[in-house]
């Protein structure tokens, strides 16, 4: 079969299920900003339908969605250049999600580690939506025929599933309709770890606020969390190999590198030999310098929620120009009778 040429298009999403963390910023949003430009169309989504796979207080969901949108813009996403949407305003996501529920196999879904982590010991009590989540995620991406998806390391398995779903659909219906999306998992901070435990991901749902840096933390809070971050007693090495088996040290160096747009080796060339007592204040200063303009701008944008709502509505209109024809064609391929003039 001849290979269809797909428009270079970036899609990614973040759940409005709590405040943004430094992990979201370095692993995702900063990368979204970097991908804006003439090379790609860029679409970024607040995945509210995904958020409700676990209970969300309605008022919090509304606020978190607007705050996430403010975070995107404050970090440098231009709502003219990129399309900014919340998922529920573009109904084709959920519609294609249903079709993909019928393509994805139970066996595939049962292997998803994020479900196992999130459902925990009481999987019988998890929502059906949490189990089906990755099929909706595949729909988020493929309803745009997106070719590139920037995400953190934890989403790799979901992107492999997205490719499996695209391939099975194309195979079952004998078409070359959905692209094989490329995951873009790059940079020094694809997996930012907890400040309290170098073996755990930094997460908005960690019960300890000291484990994470929130995008809305003030300078004092950031400095305090970094000062108290777990480390080992040794000095920093001069080369990346010296970070092996030192997860906490590696995490802080990775964060420094990502914030400062450097490689780990470049950072270690400058700070190799220093003790954490000297390095931590450097990291705190850098983090405050990079994050406080963003949190200030977020707060300013949150003063005008009506403008955020207008940005999301305009984004949804633009998005539907892409998604409506792709869904229509999907339904035709599947054999659904289409509406006619009556
Ligand atoms: P979530 O907050 O789970 O919706 O994640 C949104 C995006 O942020 C995804 O691309 C994740 O891979 C990324 N992300 C979340 N936490 C981290 C982390 N600790 N390190 C790197 N990327 C992360
Ligand atoms: N599953 C992602 C997360 O938990 C969020 C997400 C939903 C997403 N749909 C997406 C990411 C599509 C990239 C592309 O972080």
Taking the sheet with the most strands, its summary is: 3 strands, parallel
CATH class descriptor name of the largest domain: Alpha Beta
Gap between N and C termini? 38 Å
Structural class by helix and strand composition: mainly alpha
* % residues in beta strands: 5-15%
Globally, the shape reads: globular
What is the count of helical runs?
A: 13
What is the chain-wise order of helices and strands?
EHEHHEHHHHEHEHHHHH
Radius of gyration: 21 Å
Q: What is the average per-residue confidence, as pLDDT, rounded to a whole number? A: 96
CATH architecture descriptor name of the largest domain: 3-Layer(aba) Sandwich
How many β-strands, per DSSP?
5
Q: Strand order across the biggest sheet? A: 1-2-3
Number of domains: 2
Helicity level: 40-55%
Which ranges are low-confidence, i.e. pLDDT below 50, for 5 or more consecutive residues? Answer: none
Task: Examine the coordinates and then state which fold CATH places here, giving the name of the CATH topology of the largest domain.
Answer: Rossmann fold
Name the CATH superfamily assignment of the largest domain: HUPs
Blueprint (SSEs and pairs):
Elements: E1 9-14, H1 22-35, E2 41-46, H2 48-51, H3 58-75, E3 83-86, H4 92-101, H5 106-110, H6 113-119, H7 128-142, E4 148-150, H8 156-173, E5 182-184, H9 219-227, H10 247-259, H11 264-271, H12 276-302, H13 305-334
Parallel strand pairs: 1-2, 2-3, 4-5
Helix pairs in contact: 3-12, 4-7, 4-13, 7-8, 9-12, 10-11, 10-12
Bound molecules: adenosine monophosphate (AMP) and tryptophan (TRP).
